[in-house]
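Lab meeting prep.
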Amino acid sequence: MLDEALKEEIQGAYRQVLEGLDLTPRYGQRLMIAEIARTLSGIEADETGRRVSNEHVCVLEAGTGTGKTLAYLLAALPVAKARGKRLVVSTATVALQEQVLHQDLPSLKQHSGLHFDYALAKGRGRYLCVAKLDQALDGVESNPTLSLFEQALESRDGDDFHELIQEMAEAYGNGRWEGDRDSWPVSIDDSSWRQLTTDHRQCTNRRCGHFGACAFFRARRHLDQADIIVTNHDLVLADLSLGGGLVLPSPKDCIYIFDEGHHLPDKALEHFYHRFGVNAALRWLRTLKKSLTELNTALGSQATLARLLAGFPDLIAAIEPRLGEAYSLGHQLAELPNGAGDDTRHHRFAMGRAPQPLREMAAALVVPFAELSRNLESMADILRESLDPDKATGLSREQAEPWLPLVALLQGRALEANALWQAMAADDAQGEPPQARWLTFDQQGGDAELTFSASPVSAAETLARYLWGSCYGAVITSATLTALGRFERLQERAGLANRYRYQCLPSPFDYSKAVLSVPYEAVDPSDREGHERAIVEFVTALGDKEAALVLFSSRAQLRAVEKALPRAQQERVLAQDRLPKRELIDRHRKRIDAGESSVIFGLASFAEGIDLPGDYLTHVVVTRLPFAVPDDPVGATLAEWIESRGGNPFMRISVPDASIKLVQACGRLIRKESDQGRITLLDRRVLTRRYGRALLDSLPPFRREIDGQPQA
C-alpha cells in the first residue's frame, strides 16, 4: 500500500520537474508513475527487509513520447530509498544508457527536489588493469609467462601498442582518464585491449599491489554509495550467473528497471550458450604441455603445486586423443570429409538430441576437463594466497604474481570446455524444451575448425528462478512488449508469471496524422523477381523531397534493388552496409537540412533505435513482413519441439515475433507529437493471409489506405 507520505513525495517531485523543465503532464506518464508506485510499495517484506510477497513485478508497454524514463525514476526512487533498496536501471543499448546517465538523471536531480547519488556500472573487462599496464610498460621480459601463452594467444602491435600504453599511463596517472575503455578518446582495438584488462578469475582483488589505484575498484567504491546504478542487461545477467552481488548489489537488495525490456530474453540466452572449438583447445593444451618444464622451474618448489603440475601430462594425454576422435566423429556425423569447405556450415541435431556415439564421447571428456579445471583452480587459489603477506604458502609474491593471470585464463577455458561437454552429454528434462545442440564447421585463421555448441532454447526458467524469484522488485518497460496486442509471448520467453501486473499505457501521439498504405505495387515476396521489381519501381517513383527509410529483410535484396535503380535514384540512396551508421544518419540529416531528397536503405537493425523526428523522416517503407526464418540452431530446435507437441511454430513464434518487429519498424515514423507522414507495406500477404488482419490490428491506429483507396 502506498502510504500518504510516499505518495506526496512522488507527486511533489513530479510537479517540480514539470515546472522546472516546462513540461506538459501526460496521461500515460501519470498512469505509469501510479502503476509502478502501487506495485513497488505493495511489496511485503519481513523484519530483515527480505521480500515475502510474490506480486513484485510490473510489465508496462509505453510507446515513444510517454516519458518512460522520468516516470520510472520518479516512481521507483522514493520507494527504493524508503525500503532501503538500490535502484538498478538497466538498458539494452549504449545510446539509452548515456541518455539516462547524462541527461535524465542530472535533470531529475536538479529539478525534482529528490536527493540521491547515481553511478554507472560496467563490467571489469571495460576497465584498465593497472597491473597489466605496468607489466606492458616494463616489457615482455619482466614477465616470463608472457612468452609461454600470451604470445601464442595475442598479437602485439609494436610501436603503436607501446605508444598507446605510454599515453594511457600518463593520462591515468595524472587523473585525466578514469581507466575505462569507453572514455578513451579514440577507439582501442580488441587485441590491444585484451592485453590491458582482466576478468574476475585473473583479478587478485585486494591482494594486488595496485589495488589502491585500480580503475575497476575505484568505480566500484562509487557504486557502493549510489542510490541509482545505471548499467546494461548483459552486466545484470553476468552478475546473476556468478551468483549475484559480485559487481552489482545482491538481487534481494535491488529494485530493477529493465528499459528496452524486450531484449532481455535474447540477452539471457547468450549467457547460457556453451561452445568448444576443437583445434583451438588443442592449441592451448599443447602450449600448456610444452610449458610444464618452465612452470615446474618457477613454481615446483611449492609441494602442492609440484603435485598438481605432475598430474598435467597424464590429463593432457587423456584429453588430446579424444579431441582428435571428436573432430573425426563430428565430420562423420555431418557426413563431411575432415577439413572440408571454406564456408561456414552448421549441422544441427534433431530435437537437440546428440547421437549416442557423441554423447559417449562427451561423457568421456567431462571427467578429464573437470579434473583439469579443478587442478587449475587449486593452483590459482595457492597463487592468490601467496600474494597475501599473512599467508605462508611456500611461494613469494614475486614468484606467484606473474603466473596467476595465465593459470586463471586456462582455468576459465577448462571450465567452459567442461560445461560444453556436460551439456552435450546431458539428458533433457521430460516435457521441457530441449537444449539445442549442433556442430559448426568453418575456417579460423586459415585452419579448419570444428566447434561443438549447446544452448537452451528458452531462458524462461532461469530468469524466473534467478532474477524474478530473487529480486526485491522489478519493472519491465519498452515501447514493444506485446505481440499481437498480448503479453503472452513475452511471458513465455522471459519466465514472467501471470500474477504480475501488466498494462499497455496510452500513447500521447495522434496516429491519425500518419497513413498506413498497402499500394498496388505490393506483391507476395514468394515471387522474388516480381517483388524486387516492385520495390525498384516504388523507390524510383518516390518524390523529389522525400525523407524516406526503406527497410529490407535481406542484404542481398537491398544490394540488388540499389543496383537496379536508375543512376539519379542511386545518388540519393544511403545504404546501411556501405557507411557506418552514425555517418549515414549525419549525411541524411544534412541532405534534408539542405532541402534535398534522401532515402536510407536499412536492414533489421534500422527498424529499432533510429530517431529521425520531424522532417528528417516522413516516409517509412517496409519491403517485406519481418518474419524471421527459424533456421538458426536454437530457433529451429524450439520450432521442432513445438511441432512435436502438436503446436504450430509459425503461429506461436513467427507471427507474434513479426508483429513486434513490424510495430518497431512503423514506430520509426512518429517520434514526437507533431510528426506525420506515410508508412508503406510492399508485402501483399498482409491482405491475403489469415494472419494479416492480426498483424494490421496490432499496429497503432494509423489511417489506412489499400490500393490507393482510404479505408474506414
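Slide two material, second protein:
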Amino acid sequence: MLRLTDIKLPLDHPEGAIEAAARAKLGLGTDALHRVTVFRRGHDARKRGHIQLIYTLDVEVADEAGVLKRHANDKHVQPTPDTGYHFVARAPEGLAQRPIVIGLGPCGLFAGLLLAQMGYRPIILDRGKAVRERTVDTWGLWRKRQLEPESNVQFGEGGAGTFSDGKLYSQISDPKHHGRKVLTEFVEAGAPEEILYVSKPHIGTFRLVTMVENMRATIESLGGEIRFQQRVDDVLVDTDAAGNRQLRGVVLTSGEQLLSEHVVLAVGHSARDTFFMLHERGVYMEPKPFSIGFRVEHPQSIIDRARFGPQAGHPILGAADYKLVHHCSGDHQGKGRSVYSFCMCPGGTVVAATSEPERVVTNGMSQYSRNERNANAAIVVGIDPKDFAAFDDSGSPLAGIALQRDLESRAYALGGRNYSAPGQLVGDFLAGKPSTEFGQVQPSYKPGVHLTDLATVLPEYAIDAIREALPAFERQIKGFAMHDAVLTGVETRTSSPVRIRRGEDYQSLNTRGLYPAGEGAGYAGGILSAAVDGIRVAEAVALSINATK
C-alpha cells in the first residue's frame, strides 16, 4: 500500500475527485488503481475565498514497486507506514501482584485498558464517582451552586477531559503511533469514525460519557477491577540501608492497604492533596511552569467569518477555531511575557471547574455539534516558579498550588461568594473601568457571571500582558477585541503546577515502583497526550513485571 500526501482539492469537490486525484498523481489508469482510503483530511484556510481540502490517502495499486520507482524522488509518494498497535508483553502465568492504577482520566483509563488487554488484570482506583453519577454532581454546581469536592469537573471517571471539547489532537512526538491506538479504541467505544481521519478530531461531552462507560466495561471483561470513591491517602515505601526506596503499596481513606510494587500515578493536575502527601513521603518533585488568565467569549459567527470568510458555515468546515500567541514587548509589568489562547472551544460554553470549596475556576466545554452561539477560549499568561514566591516563599515544589488557590479565592470573593464568576467586557477591561451591564454577548458560565473589574483578580503583570495582547489578537481576528466580548475569571488549571520526575524506565527518580504519568505528573496536556502517556507507562509496567518473574 502507498501513502500519498498533500493532495489538494476544492472544498466542494465532486464525488470521485479523490480517486481521480490519486490516479493523476501517480499517472495511473483506472484498472491500475485498486482502492483509495482517506487517512487524513484537513483544510487550508489561509486564502479565505479559496479554502482547499488537504488529503492524505492510502492507495492500493497493481504495481507498487513500479510506482515507487517512478516516484523515487517524490516525498509525497511513500510506502504506507505500519500504524497498527503491537503489544510489548503478555502477563506471565501466576501473576503474584496486580498492578494498580490511580486515577481514571484519559491517562489512567488507557493505562488500565492496555494492562487489561495484556492480561495483567489491573486494579484501578478513582477518588470520584462513575461518570453518570459524577455528571449529576457536576450539574449540581452549575445549576444549584452545590459543590461536591470529590465528584466534579476535575474528579471522577473520565477525568477533566470528559467536560471539555473532547479534542483529540496533539503536537507530541509519537513515532510508535500510539495516538492511532487511542483513536481506534475510542471508535470501538462509540466515537464517530471520522476521528480517524479529520485533522482536528473532537468528540464532545455527551459522547465521551458513553464511550468512557464502554471502555470501563471492556477493562472489567478482561479481568480488570475498577473501584470508585477510593481515594489514596498514603503510600507504603521501604528504604534500604543504601537509601534506595521501593514502593510496596497504597493506603486508602478507609485504611485498607493494597499491596503492589507497580503503581501508576495518573491523578490529574488538580489532586493537590495527593501532591502534598507524596511530597511528605519524600517522592521527588519540582515546581513547573503553567499559565493563568481568563476565558473570553465571542459570538461564534464572528470567529467563523474571520477565519473562513464567505465560506463560513460550510458543513465540512464546521465551527471555526483559532490559535493565537503574542509576545509582550511594552513598557509595563507584563513585558517579556507570552500570552496565548488555550483550550479553544468553538460553539461551546464556559463551565465552573473548581474542585475546592469557596474557589472559582473556569474551563471550556463543547458538545460534538459545536452549535452553541458563543466561541470561548482561555487567554492565559505564562508564569514560572520564580513567580510563585510572592504567594509561597518557602521554596517548596508545591508553591504553585498556593498561587492557584490565592487567585481562585480572589475570584470567588469578587464573583459574590456564591460560585458566580467575576466578569468584565473586553472594552471595559482595556479601558480599566468596571463593567455594569452585558452587551450583545451573553456569557454562558453557570451558575452565573457577576460584572466587576477584573484587574485585582490576577497579578499586575498578567493583567498588563493580557491588555497588550488583546489588541494584537484583534489584528489577527477582526472582532476579537470587540467591546462586548466577555472575559470570565479565573483560568488556573491549564496544566499541573508540579512535575513528579521520572527516569527513562518511567519510574519515579527516587521511588521505584511508582510510575508518575499524565497531566498531574507534568507529562501531558490534553486528552490525546495523556492517553498516549498512559499507554507508554502501561508498557513500562508490563516489561518491568515480566523482567522480575
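Talking points for slide two:
DSSP finds 13 helices and 23 strands in the chain.
The chain has a mean pLDDT of 96.
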